[in-house]
Structures are given as C-alpha cells and as structure tokens.
C-alpha cells in the first residue's frame, strides 16, 4: 500500500484520481483549500479509513510521510483563475516549490498537472511536446499560462539540481462528472444551459477549436505516467486528438440532451486560443496510452451527471 498525496483532491480531476487510487488499494491524503473544489466531490470517500482530506493551501509548506505526490491544486477554469490572478500565480510558483520541497524531503516521485495552455495560441498544429508555445506574458490568461510554464521550469530545475523524480503531464481539455455547475468551462456551461433550455453562449464565432477528453482516459494516463521509469520526466501530452469547433460541440450537446436551447454569440475573451489539438505520439509510445472513450459516450455520462443534480 502506497501513501499518496493528491493536492487539489476535492476538485474535478482530483476527486476522480482519489477514488481510483483508493480502489487500487492505496492510502490517500487529499489536500485542498476548497477554492473551486467541493466536499461533495469526495463525500463517498470520506468514510473510508484509507482516505483523509485536510484543508490546506499549498502556498504554505506542508510535510507528511507520503510515498508519491500528484500536484493538481490550481483553479483551471478561466473565470476562476482570473478571479485572483496573483493567487493563481502563487499557487503555481510558491505552491509547486512547496510540493517539490516535500518530494525532496521524502525522496519521492512528484507528478505535476501542467496544461495545454503552455502552448498558448499555438502556431504549430497539432501540438507536440517539443513546441515551445506562443504565450502572451502580460494578458488576462497569463497568470495561469505563465504560472504553469514556470511550474514546469521549477520541476525541471529541481530534477536537474536536486535529483527529484519528476513527471510533467500536459493535460488537454478534460470533462466529466464532478465538474462544478458554475465551473465556467465550455462543456459544463453548455450542458447546464442545454438542460435548462437556456441560450447556449458561444464566445466569438464558435470556429475556435478544442480537443476534449473524458475524465476516465485522463486518470488512466496520469497513473500510467506516474508508473514510468524514473528516467522519464515528460512533459507528455495527455488528451484526445478528436478536434471540435465550439459550435460543433454546442450542436452535439443540444442533440444529446434533446434541448430547445438556441445558440447565442458573445464577445470572445482576450487571448482565447484559436485552435488546440494534442499530438499524443509520445504518450502512445512511452505509456502505451491512448484515449478510449468516444465523445458521444463521455458527453452522455456527463449529461446524466448534471441531470442527476436536478438543476
Ligand atoms: P478544479 O478547479 O476542479 O480543481 C482544482 C482543485 O485545486 C480544487 O479542488 C481547488 O479547491 C484546489 N486548489 C486551488 N488552489 C489551491 C491551493 N492554493 N491550495 C490547495 N488547493 C487548491 O480543476 P480541475 O479541472 O480538476 O484541474 C486540476 C488540475 O489539472 C489543475 O492544476 C489544472 O490546471 C490542471 N488541468 C486541468 C485541465 C482540465 O481540462 N480540467 C486541463 C489542463 C490542466
Ligand atoms: N467558451 C464558449 N462558451 C462558454 C465557455 C467557453 O464559447 O460558455 C469557449 C471559450 O471561449 C474557448 C472554449 O470555449 O474558446 C473553451 O473554453 P474553456 O474555458 O472550456 O477552456 P480553455 O479556453 O481554457 O481551453
């Protein structure tokens, strides 16, 4: 039995990871400041003697006798990470340093949840890991994008300077149950709007693209990455290469929900990337990983989840 620390464990991705690693027979310590996460996401795990959750903000140091660390703590939705951009940066810089110091103290592996946002508004398509990105350092998304880029730098420097065993995963847009109703990201927004027969808000002309992966595929990829040989640090892309325009996504959700919603167009937020699609050759090769869940099935499961909340 491994003692695994998951920061951001009460969030969307973290709650699924806690559940899966618990099912696999591990002892889980979840840290969360509940900024965007919720105890509801982990309520089913609370009674399990091998699960504990501590209210803690990772910008403060934390020490515990753990064998592995998954660092997921950070708001991920633009409306949430832009709410307090200074705090977002601190979480990615001071928080990640704190977790790396814990990994050093424990001499244990640390996996960091990085993001496709490190590619910014990419001029290379699809994006592979050797692309350095096209990021505005002073825009409204910079607190997140540059914070995540700096976190990758910290990971690599702790690896080179302190021999810490690190794993960097660049996660592409992920959706599924346990996304918060007011998360603000496109899949949850569209599903909630469709289920309420409200207007579906497309930002810009809806021709920008994203590639959406279902949560189960991501969890599988994260666990496979953690299990790789110490010599493999990443970064590695984990995402589903099927690319959609935002308008196509809206139409698909209307069809799957049987909604009467209409599409309405709103201004595009600043620095919104025009296209995004992962090249997952490296994940296929090193992790023997590729996504298994079709968009239709993943969206149906997610729609069922939101339906069950009786919006
Ligand atoms: P989320 O907002 O649902 O979860 C983030 C969790 O971290 C929440 O529980 C929040 O309360 C917690 N948190 C935030 N700041 C914290 C702090 N300073 N100290 C302790 N806890 C803190 O988001 P998510 O979608 O589950 O994302 C998890 C991680 O994956 C994030 O690091 C995010 O950047 C990364 N990621 C997610 C996606 C995606 O599509 N979901 C894509 C790329 C990267
Ligand atoms: N988006 C949209 N309507 C919404 C929410 C988002 O059209 O209600 C767009 C957003 O402008 C972006 C895409 O959907 O082009 C994905 O947005 P999200 O916030 O989910 O993720 P990110 O931009 O970080 O990839």
Secondary-structure class: alpha/beta
* Cα Rg: 19 Å
Order of helices and strands: EHEEEHHEHEEHEEEHEEHEHH
List segments where confidence is low: pLDDT < 50 over at least 5 consecutive residues.
none
Oligomer: single chain
Q: Termini distance?
A: 39 Å
Q: Globular, elongated, flat, extended or rod-shaped: what is the shape?
A: globular
The helix content, as a percent range, equals 25-40%
Sheet with the most strands: spatial strand order: 3-2-1-4-5-6-11
* Sheet of most strands: 7 strands, parallel
Rounded average pLDDT = 97
Ligand set? nicotinamide-adenine-dinucleotide, uridine-5'-diphosphate
Strand portion, in percent? 15-25%
Number of helix segments? 9
Annotation, overall tally of beta strands = 13
Task: Based on the model shown, name its key terms.
311 residues, alpha/beta, seven-stranded parallel sheet, 9 helices, binds nicotinamide-adenine-dinucleotide, binds uridine-5'-diphosphate
Describe it for me?
Helices cover 37% and strands 17% of the residues. The chain is α/β, with parallel strands linked by helices. Strand 5, helix 4 (142-162) and strand 6 form a beta-alpha-beta unit. Helix 3 runs parallel beside helix 4, helix 5 (186-195) crosses helix 9 and helix 7 crosses helix 9. The longest helix has 22 residues, at 85-106. The termini are far apart.
């Amino acid at each position: 039995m491994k003692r695994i620390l998951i920061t951001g464990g009460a969030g969307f991705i973290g709650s699924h990871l806690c559940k899966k690693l618990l099912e696999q027979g591990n002892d889980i310590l979840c840290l969360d400041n509940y900024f965007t996460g919720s105890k509801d996401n982990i309520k089913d795990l609370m009674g399990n003697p091998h699960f504990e959750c501590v209210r803690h903000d990772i910008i403060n140091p934390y020490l515990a006798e753990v064998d592995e660390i998954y660092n997921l703590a950070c708001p991920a939705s633009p409306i949430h990470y832009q709410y307090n951009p200074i705090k977002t940066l601190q979480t990615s810089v001071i928080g990640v340093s704190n977790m790396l110091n814990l990994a050093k103290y424990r001499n244990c592996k640390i996996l960091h949840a990085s993001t496709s946002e490190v590619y910014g508004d990419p001029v290379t398509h699809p994006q592979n890991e050797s692309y350095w990105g096209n990021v505005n350092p002073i825009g409204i998304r910079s607190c997140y994008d540059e914070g995540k880029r700096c976190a990758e730098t910290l990971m690599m420097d702790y690896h080179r300077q302190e021999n810490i065993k690190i794993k960097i995963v660049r996660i592409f847009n992920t959706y599924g149950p346990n996304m918060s109703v007011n998360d603000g990201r496109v899949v949850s927004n569209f599903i909630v709007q469709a289920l309420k027969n409200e207007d579906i808000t497309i930002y810009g002309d809806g021709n920008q693209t994203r590639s959406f992966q279902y949560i189960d595929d991501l969890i599988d990829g994260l666990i496979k990455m953690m299990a790789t040989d110490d010599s493999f640090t990443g970064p590695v892309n984990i995402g589903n290469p099927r690319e959609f325009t935002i308008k196509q996504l809206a139409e698909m959700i209307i069809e799957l929900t049987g909604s009467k919603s209409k599409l309405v167009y709103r201004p595009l937020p600043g620095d919104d990337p025009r296209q995004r699609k992962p090249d997952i050759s490296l994940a296929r090769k090193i992790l023997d990983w590729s996504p298994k869940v079709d968009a239709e099935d993943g969206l149906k499961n997610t729609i069922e989840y939101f339906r069950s909340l009786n919006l």
